[in-house]
Amino acid sequence: MKKRKSISVILAAVLSLSTLAGCASSSPAASAAASNAPSAASSGAGLKKIVVGASPTPHAEILKEAAKLLKAKGYDLEIKEFSDYVLPNTALNDKQLDANYFQHQPYLTDFNKEKGTDIVSAGAIHYEPFGIYAGKTKSLADLKDGSTVAVPNDTTNEARALLLLQAQGLIKLKDGAGITATQKDIAENKKNLKFREIEAAQLVRSLQDVDIAIINGNYALQGGLKVENALAVEASDSLAATTYANIVAVRKGDENRADIKALVEVLKSSEMKTFIKDHFKGAVVPVN
What is the 3-state secondary structure (H, E, C) of the chain? Predict the structure, then answer.
């Protein structure tokens, strides 16, 4: 009898603990805590994410400012920075990005042709005046016979460099040579300038080894160069300025997506034009 009584006491204790445990898990305090816990689905305050690839300067800087305006339109802008001119397009083509912002249309056209991609412009945002910067030679008037000139090694940007040299009277291109000009199109080179083709991102570093270098606006900015210190800069009404506007690029068919339209609308807004003018002081110029 004593043994049966002990067993009954133990069973009663176990049942009592089970009941208490059940009450604890369904208590109002516990329910409130569970309902207030954040969930992955509610993170980001309901904003739709747009992932855009960009060069660090000036594109990523512009996008960081644009991100503030995009939040008001319901979008969270994620910026992925790239330091070259190839990966942003391959990442876009592979659907790792929704868009990219780093290039002009002639470069994109050449890239599509070479790589077999189908990337298009969703809108032109700004252009960066190409500049001639001093290396060993401190003025264009002091360039000697046989001076070395560093130019970008990609086809479209090299043409742009040659057009700027022609505008300064340093070379003359064949009639009809425009945005597809190459060194083979040089008709006159009175100073016998020697051209050194260098990857665009490395041009600033090359200055100590050449007499002058023609440098893309974004890489000049990254390298700490100021456009007001350039020996010469593209005119705002030049063929280059009107042709080489930097664009928001997307996969063909995505240019009419609501999020892409919102991105372009913000980048072309009066607020962003004011930011670009004030922040970059002529090194970056918004398009109309």
Answer: CHHHHHHHHHHHHHHHHHHHHHHHHCCHHHHHHHHHCCCHHHHHHHCEEEEEEECHHHHHHHHHHHHHHHHCCCEEEEEEECCCCCHHHHHHHCCCCCEEEEEEHHHHHHHHHHHCCCEEEEEEEEECCCEEEECCCCCHHHCCCCCEEEEECCHHHHHHHHHHHHHCCCCEECCCCCCCCCHHHEEECCCCCEEEEECHHHHHHHHHHCCEEEECHHHHHHCCCCHHHCCEECCCCCHHHHHCCEEEEEECCCCCCHHHHHHHHHHCCHHHHHHHHHHHCCCCEECC
